[in-house]
Write a structure and sequence with these properties.
The structure is a homodimer. Chain A has 8 helices and 5 strands; from the N terminus they run H-E-H-H-E-E-H-H-H-H-E-E-H. The first copy, chain A, is mainly alpha-helical. The structure holds a DNA duplex. Chains A, B: It comes from Actinacidiphila paucisporea.
DNA sequence: ACGTAGTACCTCGACACCGATGTATAGTTC
DNA sequence: GAACTATACATCGGTGTCGAGGTACTACGT
């Protein structure tokens, strides 16, 4: 997820680590902050895989900057990760939002539609947080007000997203 | 989050690891499955901290079961974790849902209200996924349809949850 | 002159998590 | 009779993440 953000941001424009950190923080930091000691090793990993290049530049105000940019391999890797997200990228809302944040880079409307359809299938699957006798329990059947809340909120999210998915898919299909 | 689920489920009734695993899977497994090799070490950790006790029992159909139950310390720890969730438990939806799933065990309506109010404060904070010139960008200003989706869905969720939080808080305040 | 905040990068130890693999029994399917 | 699924537990190596700490320079207030 962090790696996808890095690849996504660097696809838009070359950045140095410190600026990258601020962009990642703006994107998902309010939900889950990422530590510096997580970002820099992640950059090194991606560099080692040959997905990004590092160019030294004199520091504007402080230490010399390492301007990072995607290699051709890095661009291909980004496209691969966007076109074929892992199951967790589909089921976990935070990861899914990260995919969505960069999905426009996938350019091909048909390929974008494939990804949206995977999320659609996931949301259409009957699933819940609470079960009785292996059957999902609806909000109306729960007496615990907090568990009721979980179901009510999840349902509202699910409906809003299904709406959005269906209209966006219609537009993508029309474009393709 | 996993540890909270374990404490929460064991507060309801003693269980052996395998059954615990199924309950955890039912609660959050469709979003983020947890591996066996994560659960068993987690159980050991909690046991080592003195929060749960292990009683051997002949296996019903297979290997001998280890029936797990909360100690008094474990119950106290659960209450502490429910009453004073970490910041990430408040900001991350999956973690927050886990807190909600067991919040009824906190018994005291005033203490429950304190927790809900922390989530309320988090949701009322102006924050977004996308910024231009350090200002949050609204769905209407974005032209990327996928980023628009993120904002539309997040807004729908936020509204549903704010509604629910306010009515539930009113009920809790009336009860206290 | 001193402290603090911001820029810009880095290392290290600790630890949670995971996939792979192992052990053993019982019931079901082909 | 073999293969598979379910029950029930466990270990182990690899890896991602984090907090704490370190380095070094600039700018600003006092």
């Amino acid at each position: 997820m962090l790696e996808l953000s890095i690849l996504g941001f660097l696809h838009e424009t070359p950045l140095h680590g410190y600026e990258l950190r601020k962009r990642v923080a703006a994107l998902t930091g309010h939900i889950k902050p990422i530590a510096e000691s997580t970002l820099y090793p992640a950059i090194k990993r991606l560099e080692k895989s040959g997905w990004l290049r590092r160019d030294q530049q004199p520091g504007a105000v402080a230490a010399p900057r390492h301007v990072l940019s995607l290699t051709d391999g890095g661009r291909a890797e980004l496209m691969r990760r966007l076109a074929e997200p892992e199951p967790l990228d589909i089921s976990n809302e935070n990861r899914w939002f990260t995919v969505l944040a960069f999905l426009r880079h996938l350019a091909d409307p048909a390929a974008q539609a494939v990804v949206l359809r995977r999320r659609l299938a996931f949301l259409e699957e009957p699933s819940s947080f609470f079960y009785a006798d292996d059957r999902p329990v609806s909000a109306e059947e729960v007496d615990d007000p907090f568990r009721q809340g979980v179901l009510v909120i999840a349902r509202a999210t699910s409906r809003a997203e299904l709406d959005w998915l269906r209209t966006t898919l219609a537009a993508l299909d029309a474009a393709a």
